[in-house]
Amino acid sequence: MLELSHIxxxxxxxxxxxxxxxxxxCVFDSxxxxxITGHNGSGKSTLTKIIMGILKPTSGKIYFNGRDIxxxxxxxxxxxxxxxxxxxxITFRGITIKELIDIASNENNxxxxxxxxxxxxxxxxxxxxxxxxxxxxSGGEQKRIELALAIAKKGDCxxxxxxxxxxxxxxxxxxxxxxxxxxxxxxVSHQSRLLERADKILLLxxxxxxxxxxxxxxxxxxxxxxxxxxxxx
Length: 233
Ligand SMILES: Nc1ncnc2c1ncn2[C@@H]1O[C@H](COP(=O)(O)OP(=O)(O)OP(=O)(O)O)[C@@H](O)[C@H]1O
Ligand SMILES: [Mg+2]
What we know:
Elements: E1 2-13, E2 16-28, E3 32-38, H1 44-52, E4 59-64, E5 67-68, H2 74-80, E6 82-85, H3 97-105, H4 111-120, H5 139-152, E7 157-161, H6 169-172, E8 184-188, H7 192-197, E9 200-205, E10 208-214, H8 215-232
Helix pairs in contact: 3-5
This protein binds adenosine-5'-triphosphate and magnesium ion (MG).
């Protein structure tokens, strides 16, 4: 279980202070898929980077399985079982996809085993396993390999930032393969199908929690919010 308690994130923008996240408190349960949604710039990626330790909150606490991880590094969090898949994958020259899968899973995988991870994200493994993870891969291919690496890491708490971004509809069906029973998943998404698949939704607006709860309830409220805005216009 992952818990956020009163998380604030402020930055210096020229001479003024800008609040990106304001008083975010939330519990992400094990065996639960929680989607984080909200408009562009509402703070979703910032929040997930704070959970993973890529950014440090200005104030507030983060607990993972009851342990205070607020001051822990990314590596320490990864060792505890936190895994992160970036919105925009980071590629490397000079390293093959097979080697990256071995690093991610911390074992020397057989070729069939390494291919299994790629098949899960809809990639024809034999065409890719010896390729370098570089910019010659298409955007959708990079994204799918990033997801395969996140699966290979076997964390207890897995964070996906817009896993569907750049992935075609056929592959989208396979996104369900990302979720295993018993784990805590935090998935940033704008896609209604992914939001419907989630057990819970955290809705952010301007860096604040606008709604949180069972996905059907939050989806209903979101529809009402849109209707209200359309009426006002
Ligand atoms: N270092 C920074 N300097 C200035 N503004 C920043 C900085 N970091 C984040 N922001 C701003 O904080 C806000 C939240 O950014 P974030 O990337 O978390 O949004 P998001 O909800 O993930 O958006 P999207 O749906 O477009 O991915 C944005 O307005 C962004 O411009
Ligand atoms: Mg984002």
